[in-house]
Amino acid sequence: MKEITFLDGSVVKITGEKPCLGCWLVENDSNLPSLIRPIIENDKITVAQDVECPIPGFYIIAAKDHYDSIYDFSEDLYSEFFSVLYEVRKSMTDALGIDLVSTFCEEKSGGSHVHYWMLPLHADVMKRHNIKPRIHKGNIATYLDLFNCEDEKSKIQVENVNSYIYSLVLSLLGKGEFEAARDVLSRLVDLDINEVCFLFDDSEGEDEKERKLLLFSEYAGWQTRSQDCSDHRRVILELPL
Ligand SMILES: [Zn+2]
């Protein structure tokens, strides 16, 4: 049996012959505390806030199946995994305002879920506590202990949503995939962050759907965070709000 304490203090006991946290998270993702539910996932990959450290924007990109190393990936999975890693890294700066990120991958043998830790180095915290993130002489363990869930949980939720919508909905909008974007937005409503409901009526035309999505992007503040959003900003300004 393996016992895990999540960042909000809740504890789970994972049983079975070879108790595996990665498998347990995949099988139980809809019952997880909202802070650590995947923000992006498909049938192969998940991206979620670290389950133990309440550092806002600390995302883990993991394979859903067992691979000890990226060396075990197929070429397609390798390409998809690192495209997602790139998008998440990009959103950490563009949507969350994080300048520096340290990325780690601890390999383990015997059927693990290869995963990359994308640890945001929050400049204000680093400066206040004189944290030096050097891999050979650093005090990054001290940094990890500087955050507690009670202080950080609202920021984690907001960053989850911002990172999520930035990297995913924006790309769906770009491709005109409104149905997929609707699924994403319905999950945002589940997170109970927003007072506005973004579910569409099936009778609405594509223009109306797009208008609502763009209003949402305005609400989320994308247009102030990235040059990449300039096209969407232009559309927003042309809409009769
Ligand atoms: Zn597993």
Please characterize this protein's 3D structure.
The chain is an alpha+beta fold and 241 residues long. The chain has one domain: 2-Layer Sandwich (HIT family, subunit A), CATH 3.30.428. The protein contains eight helices and seven strands. The strands form two sheets. It has a five-stranded antiparallel beta sheet with strand order 3-4-5-7-6. The chain has a two-stranded antiparallel ribbon with strand order 1-2. Helix 5 runs antiparallel to helix 6 (178-190), helix 5 (149-175) runs antiparallel to helix 7 and helix 7 packs across helix 8. The protein is globular. The site of zinc ion has 5 residues, from helix 1.
List the helices and strands and how they pair.
Elements: E1 2-5, E2 11-14, H1 21-27, E3 40-41, E4 45-49, E5 59-63, H2 75-94, E6 100-104, E7 115-121, H3 123-128, H4 140-144, H5 149-175, H6 178-190, H7 206-220, H8 230-238
Antiparallel strand pairs: 1-2, 3-4, 4-5, 5-7, 6-7
Helix pairs in contact: 2-5, 5-6, 5-7, 7-8
Percent in helix: 40-55%
- What is the overall silhouette? globular
Number of strands: 7
Strand order of the largest sheet: 3-4-5-7-6
Report Rg: 19 Å
Order of helices and strands: EEHEEEHEEHHHHHH
CATH topology, anyone?
A: HIT family, subunit A
Q: Which CATH class applies here? A: Alpha Beta
Secondary structural class: alpha+beta
Unreliable stretches covering 5 or more consecutive residues: 189-201, 221-241
What is the correct CATH architecture? 2-Layer Sandwich
Ends distance:
55 Å
The number of distinct helices, counting runs of at least 4 residues, comes to 8
Ligand roster: zinc ion
